[in-house]
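User: Please predict the structure of the protein below. I'd like the answer in structure-token form so I can feed it into my own downstream comparison script.

Assistant: Understood. Taking the following sequence of 153 residues as input:
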Amino acid sequence: MEFLQEWGYIGLFLGSFMAATIIPFSSDALLVAMLAVGGNPVGCLLTATTGNWLGGLSSYLLGYIGKWEWLEKWFKITQDKLERQQARIARYGAWLAFFAWLPLVGDVFAIALGFYRIKPIKCAIFMLIGKFLRFLFWTILFFYTKQWFGWAI
């Protein structure tokens, strides 16, 4: 908890950013811990959302700059398999960005959306909404459980 008190909102932002990349990290736990040490709920919600959203956009950008040849060479994925995957991604389009907050698959969605060049503005908006709702859920849950169990923090 000392880390959170020292780094505060900057630490929450950086942790949330990293958690939205391919680095395995829990921004949810970081948000709840920040709330537990007395962080402002609105400040924590906006900081975690912004950091996680920008981290998700960096994953989208990573996919966007990717090349088919790289996947074929380094991961031995055939052109046919990439085209089948592209058809599945295109079927749902930017709506998949709403689910970029999901553990494990969320990062894959963000990278794939960028790789297949699915509408960047729509992806950014849906990603922001999904990530905001995720952190809003945790913020509300924290305060309801605190009230239900009578936590004195």
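That's the full token string. The chain has a mean pLDDT of 87.
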